[in-house]
Amino acid sequence: MNSILLITNNLKWSSEISHSAADKGFFINTLSNPDMDDLYLFLKKDKDSAVIYDLSVKDDFKKNLAFISKIRDSFSKPVIIIASDYIEENERKLFYLKVDDYIANVLNADRILLRTIHLIELYKRLVSENVNNFKKYIYKEFEISLKHFQVKYLGTKMDLTPKEFNIFYYMVRHHDQVLSREQIFRGVWREDGNDADLFISSRIVDMHVSHLRDKLKALPGNNVFIKTVRGFGYILN
């Protein structure tokens, strides 16, 4: 079950938010009268999906800001501030600390959780998109998926062997550069080698590059080719 860290001294809010959260599939960890050690202990576990911080925890707004600043520095997920009264100057200072939301005046458990869960889902989508973008490489009309180990040309999956995929990805990352057979062998098969490998590596690389080159040539409208540079190796351009 997903959990949310609620920092408040208000037992009524704690109870209402906990009951509402349970109905929505969330568990509330409540932290009352926290000191910095308590705070770090909870944040270090990194199990909570969000932090809801009640400004009534401290009687001085500057002390609240110090706590919230520590939370924001240590916590990379949503931070939501709740308060019984809206104060414009407080809002400005809170958003300067990069909190995600400031809910004041009209406070009820459902409203607080509605906005909190929305932010949790938004963070998850952003993280997922970043991961997917990291695992994709676009070159010309080719899309290389490192997650699925496949190459698509104009949206259509190419039929590549694992070695052909790795060779293509390696050559795309070094496109327009002349690569020796030894460089390709070491970049795809192994990170280091010795002189005894060189003759074997040359034959292996030539065979796989030849098959990959034929598949690239067969793609309609494709202008990305592997060319042989005599006496040196291959170049993708």
Describe the structure.
- This protein is of the alpha/beta class and 237 residues long.
- It contains eight helices and twelve strands.
- The protein has helices spanning 11-23, 36-45, 61-74, 88-96, 109-134, 162-173, 181-188, 197-217; strands at residues 2-7, 26-31, 48-54, 79-83, 101-104, 136-139, 142-145, 150-153, 156-157, 179-180, 226-229, 233-236.
- The strands form three sheets. It has a five-stranded parallel beta sheet, with helices on both faces. A four-stranded antiparallel beta sheet has the order 6-7-8-9.
- The longest helix has 26 residues, at 109-134.
- The protein is elongated.
In short:
The protein is of the alpha/beta class. It has eight helices and twelve strands. It has helices at residues 11-23, 36-45, 61-74, 88-96, 109-134, 162-173, 181-188, 197-217, and strands at residues 2-7, 26-31, 48-54, 79-83, 101-104, 136-139, 142-145, 150-153, 156-157, 179-180, 226-229, 233-236.
List the helices and strands and how they pair.
Elements (H helix, E strand, L loop, with lengths): L1 E6 L3 H13 L2 E6 L4 H10 L2 E7 L6 H14 L4 E5 L4 H9 L4 E4 L4 H26 L1 E4 L2 E4 L4 E4 L2 E2 L4 H12 L5 E2 H8 L8 H21 L8 E4 L3 E4 L1
Parallel strand pairs: 1-2, 1-3, 3-4, 4-5
Antiparallel strand pairs: 6-7, 7-8, 8-9, 10-12, 11-12
Helix pairs in contact: 1-5, 6-8, 7-8
